[in-house]
Amino acid sequence: MGTRILLNDFEYFEPETISDAITILAKYRKDAKLIAGGTDLLVDMKKGKIKPKYLVNLMKILDLRYITKDKRGLRIGATTTFREITASKLIKREYPLLFEAAEAMGTVQIRNMATIGGNICNAIPSAEIPPALVALDAVAKIAGRRGERSLPLEEFLMGIGKIALKSGELLTEVYARSPPPRSGTAFLKLSRTTADLATLNVAVRVTLEKNGACKEARVVVGGGVGPTLIRSKKAEALLKGKVLKEPLIEKAAQAASAQLKPRPTSIRASPLYKIEVCKVLVKRALLKALERTKAGGAR
Ligand SMILES: Cc1cc2nc3c(=O)[nH]c(=O)nc-3n(C[C@H](O)[C@H](O)[C@H](O)COP(=O)(O)OP(=O)(O)OC[C@H]3O[C@@H](n4cnc5c(N)ncnc54)[C@H](O)[C@@H]3O)c2cc1C
C-alpha cells in the first residue's frame, strides 16, 4: 500500500572489499546509502521515504558473510542472511535463542534475502535479532575511515531508526559471548500472523551456579515497547543469587512488564495488551531457558 514501482535515479556500486565500501561512503557521505538484502531499504525507497543518490551494495563483499566461533564466542558477519543463521548447526546447537529469533523472522522468501546487519541497522523496535543478541551481551563491530571500533549492541541501538554509526561507517560484525556452562537461553515471539513483525518478543538467558542458584540473568523485551528494546535490569536483579522457582520467575516477569513504554498508537496491540502479554512471555521464556540449563552446557 502506498508504494510505487518507479524509484528516483541513483548510481549503484558493488564494492568487493570493506575498504572500497568505506571509500565510496567517504566520497558521497549523506547522499550514499548502504544496501544489503534490501528488504527494508527498497520498501522505504518505493514509498519515497528515502531517495539516495548513491546505493552501495554490500553483498559482494565476501569478508562480511560468515558464521564462526572462537574461544570466547560467536562471530557473525553483517551480511549473513537469516537463512544462513537458521541453517547453521552450530547456532542451532549452541545458541538456540538466535536460531529461534532468526526462524521467527518473516517468511522464507524474506529470510533468504534479509541480513543480520540490516535487521540491526534498520533499528525498528520490533526487530527480531537484537533482543536475542543483547541477551548474549553481543558487541557491534564497526569499520570506517578512522579504523575499527566496537560497541555493546545495547548502546549501538539508540532509538527508532537511530544507531551509533557515524557518517562513513558500516557495521561489519556482531560478536556474541558464548554463554558460560550451566546456561540456558530462549526467544519467544508473539505476532498477529507468521509474516508480521513482533507484537512482542522476548529473549532471555539464565546461568546457574553449581549449587543451582542463578549466577546471572538477561531479560530483554522488544516489539514496540519503547524507542528500542528494553533490557530489564530490575528483573535480572530479582533473579540473581536465587533459586529460580515459579513464584520468583513470575515476579521477575512482572518487573519486566512494568518497565515497558509501548506507544499508544501502535498498530499491532494496545499498550495494556503488550504489558499483560509480556508477563506471560517472559515467564514462559525463563522457564524454557531454565529447562535448557539441565542439558549441562550452554543452551
Ligand atoms: C514482508 C516482510 C516481512 C518482514 N518480517 C520481519 C520480521 O518478522 N521480523 C523482523 O525483524 N523484520 C522483518 N522484516 C524487516 C526486514 O526484512 C529485516 O529488518 C531485515 O533483516 C533487513 O535486512 P536487509 O539485509 O534486507 O536490510 P536492508 O533493507 O538492505 O537495509 C536496512 C537498513 O540497514 C542499513 N544497513 C544494512 N546493512 C548495513 C551494514 N552492514 N552497516 C550499516 N548499515 C547497514 C541500510 O542502509 C538500511 O538503512 C520484514 C520485511 C518484509 C518486507
Please sum up the structure shown.
The protein has twelve helices and 14 strands. It has 299 residues and is of the alpha+beta class.
Characterize the structure shown:
- With 299 residues, the protein is α+β, with helices and mostly antiparallel strands.
- The chain folds into three domains: 11-57, Uridine Diphospho-n-acetylenolpyruvylglucosamine Reductase, domain 2, CATH 3.30.43; 62-177, 2-Layer Sandwich (Uridine Diphospho-n-acetylenolpyruvylglucosamine Reductase, domain 3), CATH 3.30.465.10; 183-293, Enolase-like, domain 1.
- It is 34% helix and 24% strand.
- It is built from twelve helices and 14 strands.
- A five-stranded antiparallel sheet has the order 4-5-10-6-7. It has a four-stranded antiparallel sheet with strand order 11-12-13-14, sandwiched between helices. A three-stranded parallel sheet has the order 1-3-2, with helices on one face.
- The longest helix has 23 residues, at 271-293.
- The radius of gyration is 19 Å and the shape is globular.
- The chain starts with 10 loop residues before the first strand and ends in a 6-residue tail after the last helix.
- The structure holds flavin-adenine dinucleotide.
- Flavin-adenine dinucleotide is lined by residues 33-41, 43, 58, 78, 105-106, 110, 113-115, 117-119, 121-122, 127-128, 165, 170-171, 195, 197.
